[in-house]
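As the next step, I wrote out a protein sequence along with its fold in token form, included below for the reader:
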Amino acid sequence: LDPQCPSAPGDVGNGFTVEFPVRYDTVKDASISRAVKMGDRSLLQPFMEGAKLLEAAGCGAIATSCGFLVMFQQELAAAVNIPVITSSLLQAPYVARMLGPDRKVGILTARAASLGEKHFRGAGIEGLDVAVKGMDEYPEFTKAFISDEPFMDVDLVEDEMEAAARSLVEMEPRLGAVVLECANMPPFAPVVRQVTGLPVHEVSTPISHTVGALLRRPFNRFYL
């Protein structure tokens, strides 16, 4: 996207989040509001063009900086010949399979009011029994990551994420894991883990998994 709010370390928009080289392509005028609130389908073409540019530049995989772009997962994956990770929601079915039948996946999302069937279809989780908690009621998070203000109080956002995580657990006591939909949430994953006591998955999880599949290291054969 093309946001005003800076990306903190841990955020996919910050190059220091990962330990391998990254290249960014910003889709001009792709605001958070257009992607999240409006679900603007006209964003698809410029994102496809950006994906093709990154592939041509030699990138081995592509990720986006907004989990709501999972509505374009099928089209973006078809536009290039390398893996595309539009959202952390893609791992929800995998996470669910790791849990017992009496456990549920919890999803913390930037805006529950906007998360719908088109996103679930894109992630392949339609029909999956999940518990969703949005940050809609938390003003500092909303100001930074939905209204796209250029500054945020990081400590306050962390407090709001902690409160949302507690609310999610209270809402659904059968949780077995949490998936953070928003690509801006990973810096606050530790507090969610601490509050819930559950595994916390976010967008860097599938990114690291994919890069691990690309950058295969040889194993030491000394002990054979």
About this structure: The mean pLDDT is 94. The CA atoms of residues 100 and 176 lie 8 Å apart. The chain has nine helices and six strands.
